[in-house]
Amino acid sequence: MPLLTVGHRGLMGVEPENTLRSFLRADREGLDVIELDLHLSKDGALVVMHDADVTRTTDGTGAIADFTLAELRELDAGQGERVPVFEEVVRAVRAPIQAEIKDRAAARVLAAAITELDLHDRVTVISFHDAALRETRERLPSMPIVLVAGRSSPTAPERARELGAHMVSLDLRWLDADTVERCHAAGIQVISWTVNTDEDLARAHELGLDGVVTDRPEIFRAVSGAA
Length: 227
Known about the structure:
Blueprint: E1 4-8, H1 20-29, E2 33-40, E3 46-48, H2 69-73, H3 86-92, E4 97-101, H4 104-117, E5 123-127, H5 130-139, E6 145-149, H6 156-163, E7 167-171, H7 177-185, E8 189-193, H8 198-207, E9 211-214, H9 217-224
Helix pairs in contact: 4-5, 6-7
């Protein structure tokens, strides 16, 4: 089976991360899944941004939670792009979405949006935080969830099994064959981030991974055999 390809914040290696421009590029290139990050604005909107602070990725400064959505819309998120909300992204792209949440509050709002928009078959909820995934599972019992881990990757098989996650997304730098084998033995798929070079891709194949998270369109082309 070919590796699953996940576009990291769209395709942030070639477009401004977590913008509609980036998500549309990933969709156009043909990646299997698009990954994005969610925070709540001051007025409770599901804002698509990785950091809790707007400083790194926009021309503004300060915490997302201190801005209303209207105020966030005034910021430049790169190349004139505006900060999107979750609902805009699901309308704009065709690919399935991995939506990363940072806390239980975001989990509750996302669960409501998934239910309202009937996105159970298009969205997978992912998180580093067990509590956020438990909140999702309580509100949406049949919702697919993915545990994300970095340095704690060696503990991922047991945590994922306890949470009922069908997949883990692990930092390639901290991933070893034993962790992959324990996941597979438990029926849990393993994808890894961030795979951006030929060497990274070779390592993913060596480990027997099920998929890769990438910033780069050429990694997708290498996996898919596209010209």
